[in-house]
Amino acid sequence: MKFYRPIILLVTVAMFAMTSCGSSTSSAEKGIITHTVFFKLKHPKGSEAEKEFLAQAVALKSINTVMNMTQVTEIGKKNDFDWGLTMQFKNQADYDTYSNHPDHVEFVKNVWEKEVVDFMEIDYTIE
User: Fold this and answer.
1) Rounded CA gap, 2 and 105, in Å?
2) CA-CA distance, 99 to 49, in Å (whole number)?
3) I want to staple 69 with a disulfide (CB 3.0 to 4.6 A). Which of 45, 50, 61, 99 is the partner?
């Protein structure tokens, strides 16, 4: 699994580059933080426990600094992850607000740490 982490990072960066190349980036987009996390759960695919976990994760979009949260399904065969979440923040202060928000802290402690068996987090900005 560790072998594939650099590949996933490269694919994520390449996907970002392909979607941003050829398009003009407004000054409002520069500096926006995109937070991504790909993960594998201990629950069987399609189980009620998996559905409940995903619902709780997506509910974090209610934190007022979160922009454009998306739940994604991993379709590649080069890693063991099943799910991903992406979201954006206007700036580091908004990202920090999310990271330290009681709902996020509680979710990580009481749900994420108990139900996620592996994950990779990548955060980046548009330059």
Assistant:
1) 26
2) 24
3) 61
- Are 32 and 16 in contact, with CB atoms under 8 Å apart? no
Is-contact 99 9, C-beta < 8 A?
A: no
Q: Are the beta carbons of 57 and 107 closer than 8 angstroms?
A: yes
Beta bridge partners of 37: 85, 121
SS3 letters across 72-125: EECCCCCCCCCEEEEEEECCHHHHHHHHHCHHHHHHHHHHHHHHEEEEEEEEEE
Task: Indicate the length of the chain as a whole number.
Answer: 127
Residue 36 DSSP symbol: E
CA distance linking residue 107 with residue 59, whole number of Å: 10
Its pTM stands at: 0.77
Q: Among all chains, which residue has been given the structure tokens 């999310």?
A: 98
Hey, what are 118's tokens? Answer: 């592996």
Kindly report, residue by residue over 65-103, the tens digit of the pLDDT: 999 999 999 999 899 999 999 999 999 999 999 999 999
- DSSP class of 29: T
